[in-house]
Amino acid sequence: MIARLFCWIVAMVAVGLTPMARAEDGYDLWLRYARADPSRSAALSAHATAIVATGAGPTWAAATGELQRGIGGMTGAPPALSETIQQGALWLATPASTPALPVRTDGLGSEGYAIRSTMVDGKAVTLIAANGDVGVLHGVYHWLRLAQSGASLDALDIRSAPKIGLRLLNHWDNLNGTVERGYAGQSIWDWWRLPDWKGPRYTDYARANASIGINGTVLNNVNAKADSLTAPYIAKAAALADIFRPYGIKVYLSVKWTAPMELDGLKTADPLDPAVAAWWKAKADEIYKAIPDFGGFLIKANSEGQPGPQDYNRTHANGANMLAAAVKPHGGIVMWRAFVYAHDNPDDRAKQAYSDFKPLDGQFADNVIVQVKNGAIDFQPREPFHPLFGAMPRTPLMMEFQITKEYLGQSTHLTYLGPLFEEVLRSDTFAKGKGSTVARVIDGSLEGHTLTGIAGVANIGVDRDWSGSIFNQADWYAFGRLAWDTSLSAQAIAQEWAAQTFSPDPRVVQPIVAMMMGSREAAVDYMTPLGLAHVMGTGHHYGPAPWIADLARPEWNPVYYHKANVQGIGFDRTGTGSNAIAQYAPPVARRLADPKTTPERDLLWFHHLPWDYRLRSGETLWDGLVHHYERGVAYVADMQKTWEGLRPYVDAERFAETEAFLTIQHREALWWRDASIAYFQSMSKRPLPAGSAAPAHDLDWYKAQSFPYAPGHN
Ligand code: GCV
Fold first, then answer.
1. Residue 665, by phi and psi: left (phi above 0), alpha (psi -120 to 50) or beta?
2. Which of 21, 187, 464, 563 places its Cα 20 to 30 Å from the Cα of 617?
3. What residues make up the domain containing 39?
């Protein structure tokens, strides 16, 4: 037996593999640094003959280490560190290390960088310059992105600095290792074995985030346990903070409003009670002792059963300001979520956050930022932008996107979210006239705020590929890239992601990007076309269930959202209905008041219309609805064909995973189409348009499907 094992090892070594060699399982994300072809490899080597690092410390070590890893991977020969400039060197410098820098670093802040091809003493070098070590690290990742994606490395003259200050992941990770709405396995935080065991994955997590400019992470679920504020858990968070610090990433914690009562027996959590304020102040002091650069708190209060200041007849501002006072002496901030709707409020759910928060504009402390989901319901495949954007000029608002795909096919559907993020960021609120985009609200430029932020609910777990599928990695990537620069296009981001993740070969990049770019619209089509929303299965939100009508709270039921009956379908949010449109600036509200001027993609979000209403195409609403479902299914079939054509270019493991997931997606897209048509036809009483196939089963069959073990449901 031992002899056989020995022979096997010898054989593996002989063919150039070690028994430890790994297949392409996606672990390396977009930082694969795969071996380049000989001519590219020679070009890379010529542009990285040595690394001249003019500073020292953990962040510099991360930067030079990443260059050596990256260039070593792509060329087979990592460049050496050198003290002196030589032809073709990569020169990393700051004004502190090199007073006479040949580029200006003003305007780059503490995180931005400049990259310039320049001459020093007659030698051609590439300078990566920044005001500090974290900026240098970001510049290094930019250069490596160019190197991996086949871009020219000559005549570089790049300046880049983020406009948004806080670029955070929100982990909905529980202390028991589960992840709410997580579809990529258990939490990567091994809370049980922290702080003693600090696995290498934490560093890889930091590398991936730093490479796309993410600078903070909220470690625990917004449905928080008070225990995360106990001394042992603070020590665990501190261990992670130590690992992330060199990468320019701060840690934050979600807090539970009643923590003072649960942990220390206080009689109340009233924010105006001095004992409560003193408790939070002492807790903040304790945290900052362990984590001197702790970022601050995130809180879900008075939302979906979570406690909050309204339980004591206080406002969200009272609550936020009390927490803000606790972290203020340490430079911390409070992110107060606006995701609120109440079981005893009969008003349209889509209006409730605005109604609660708009009157509080101007009442928040200067280290509070209100975190608003992209839309007014809940991360649907498509939602119009949240009416709070542009409506609270005296309050900094940060964006909350969902990277994990609770409502967009979870781990298996290929639905690239770049276009969704881009669509929201470019939406015009008209708050201060044309051009008042959501991006300008959150980057602070519209109202002159300096506290600015954007958060993405992470899609990360312990799966080898981190995100549950290779293509889900693109959503993490796109979030980070857009957070850094909201003016980037989803298409350009898909291109750089595909080039790094698969190959810069245009025969690979072009079809993959084409698949990705239409994939979110396809999911909208086969799930919730024309502005429909929230018709997913109860609790787990997996699969169609537009018929559900018996849940305790009205707004938990899909029928609340689509309001289909024999006359028509859709939620009337105009003046004849809930009048939610009045929460938008007048030019937007005017446009939304009339179905003819409402973007058709949002039609049934704002209007209840007869089944025979004529769409712009001339077909009836009923026929158009059916055609949208079909278009979505057809797109998935096309993606399957495109992927098949990529077989020669993609490694076997990643090819097979995507192939299998597309098969699942196609089956489920058909299921969505059939179940939705079967149900809505029971209302519309209209025949299917010519050429459309009847659903595979009757409505009762679809209703009978049940998924008690669907993942991600807390
Ligand atoms: C963390 C939705 C999700 C919940 C989530 C909540 C929130 O309701 O289904 O899982 O809870 O949003 O954002 O707080």
1. alpha
2. 563
3. 22-160
